Amino acid sequence: MTSPEHRDDPIWEQALDWLFRLHERPRDAALQAAFNIWLRANPRHAEAWNRATGTWQAMGAVPPVHGDQWQAGTRMVTMSQRRRMRPLAAVLALAACLALWLAADRFWTAGDHHTATGETRQVTLADGSRVTLDSDTTLDVAYDPGQRAVRLLSGQAFFEVTPDAHRPFTVEAAGIAVTVVGTAFDVGLTDQTVQVAVQQGKVQVGAATLLSPGEAVRIDRGTGHAERHGIGTADIAAWRSGQLVVDGVSVGEAVDRLRRYHRGLILLNDSDLAARKVTGVYDLTDPASALAAILRPHGGTVTQITPYLLILSRG
Description:
One of its GO terms (molecular function) is sigma factor antagonist activity. Keywords: Membrane, Transmembrane, Transmembrane helix. By secondary structure, this protein is α+β, with helices and mostly antiparallel strands. It has helices spanning about 10-25, 30-40, 45-60, 80-105, 250-260, 270-275, 285-295, and strands at about 75, 115, 120-125, 130-135, 140-145, 145-160, 170-175, 175-180, 185-190, 195-200, 205, 210, 215-220, 225-230, 245-250, 265-270, 275-285, 300-305, 310-315. Among the domains are: about 10-105, no CATH class; about 115-235, Jelly Rolls (Sandwich). The chain is about 30% helix and about 35% strand.
């Protein structure tokens, strides 16, 4: 898999440097004249500039003042100027990540078990049932003499439930109840869907869906529509082996799953690209390359601003 484009490209870094400086000083005539010289010096400068402004707009930022009037031009940015760009990019990425975190509907502080980005962990519950937590996952446990209840607050988990006919085991995810007596199954929660896949035994999902081994259901959180499909039992919870296995899901949903493995922010503002379908097996240990492979068939690219900020768009 290829790495995100522009990584370690000095011309790309120069274009970003100009972008940030012109945005900070939009009325500086001398700066704009120097920029015009740089832009005309090399066709690659103009190409990098077009991509930089496109990335800026993809992030929802306002284009630099008079950006549409700048013509192609030349002056190589010095190493010190390029170094000045990196803190600016880092500040931008940090601010974006902080805004996302503050706006996110996160409840992990209230949960009993939580994993960090890139971490998976197995916990054993009071009845001997085992739960393997995927990256960036939060689980709350509420056992009492009459029932075994857990709540998946975020992320994904694989459950191996100890049989107990007198106390059913229930997983609640985004208002959807998954009930079993003793079985092995996977529950995943994204911003768009709840997914349940059964490896062993039988699982009741909601009031109307009973799943057997090798069956799965994907439920749209917005509409409540349930889509039932088959799945190889070996592919269930493949994330435990560092793999993302998807079959006919939207690009947006696949990106949602990969966000839990990236220590930073992934921006995808193209609704048409997000709606495209994707099928494949991707490496969770390298989210940036996985994203590039997911987007490539649809003409999409991954632009790395910093190691913590990735912009997804069509080239």
